[in-house]
Specification:
alpha/beta; Rossmann fold; 8 helices; 10 strands
């Protein structure tokens, strides 16, 4: 809900709504009652795995076997001629390295409002992703992000750890340096993004800093708005509607999923 509310004023030409795959409001019910002919769906997921390729299309009434326009993107007619376009998930969008770098630097200097501060590229940073025992997508997305941060920004001391596969977070935090930063690569501050990571951080050195869950970063809305205008929305075209989806909203109802029209 927080992300939806942040996006709405940035995209006044669209109807911004939210739905989740687990919890309330269910994504499929939200989309079914939309009066719009065109719907954009932006998954607030951190990898292009089983949920994005199979579960999400089926929830939307799409055919997972339909030939994709390109990796992670569907175009298909659904329910009474409604045109649904499923965009790539957050985890593979081109602005993610920029958002993560901004998060790292704002964690180091939370009171600074300057974007000109020289990044601390030698600081140890550990990216925490979910991982999986059934597919490589979560791991590959996290490792790709690491490579992009190193090549684009010059970070020199990046590590990646996972909840569900090796290297496991609970062991990795024990070997962190005293001033390391941990970046939770999750869509919301729910069970994994908040509860699991907070518990594991109790074993980390006392000087370690925990960055915000990436799906709850305040700058995410601005990055999404720029991405949509640069790659999806065409000036003068009929107003589409985009649905941005996440998993179960975190405690307090502050889910970070949202939808745009």
């Amino acid at each position: 809900m927080r992300l939806k509310n942040a996006l709405a004023p940035l995209l006044p030409e669209l109807d911004v709504v939210s739905g989740v795959m687990k919890g309330t409001p269910p994504l499929q019910e939200v989309v079914e009652i939309l009066p719009h002919e065109h719907v954009l769906v932006l998954p607030l997921l951190l990898s292009n795995g089983y949920f994005c390729k199979t579960v999400l299309p089926r929830r939307l009434g799409l055919d997972p076997d339909h030939q994709q326009q390109k990796e992670g993107e569907w175009q298909n007619l659904n329910r009474s001629g409604q045109y649904i376009k499923l965009l790539p998930p957050l985890g593979v969008l081109p602005f993610l390295p920029d958002l993560v770098s901004e998060s790292i630097q704002s964690t180091l200097a939370p009171n600074s409002k300057s974007t000109l501060i020289k990044p601390d590229l030698d600081r140890e940073v550990m990216i925490v992703a979910h991982g999986s025992t059934v597919g490589p997508e979560s791991r590959l997305c996290a490792l790709q992000l690491k490579d992009q941060l190193e090549s684009r920004y010059g970070y020199k001391n990046l590590r990646v750890a996972f909840l569900s596969e090796e290297p496991f977070v609970e062991k990795a935090v024990l070997t962190l340096s005293e001033d390391a930063i941990v970046v939770p690569l999750f869509a919301s501050g729910g069970l994994h993004g908040h509860d699991d990571i907070a518990e594991m951080m109790k074993s980390a050195p006392s000087g370690c800093k925990l960055a915000p869950v990436i799906g709850c970063e305040h700058a995410l809305a601005q990055h999404i708005e720029s991405y949509l205008h640069e790659t999806v929305l065409v000036s003068g075209a009929k107003q589409p509607l985009a649905a941005l989806t996440g998993n179960t909203p975190p405690k307090g109802g502050a889910d970070c999923g949202r939808r745009v029209s």
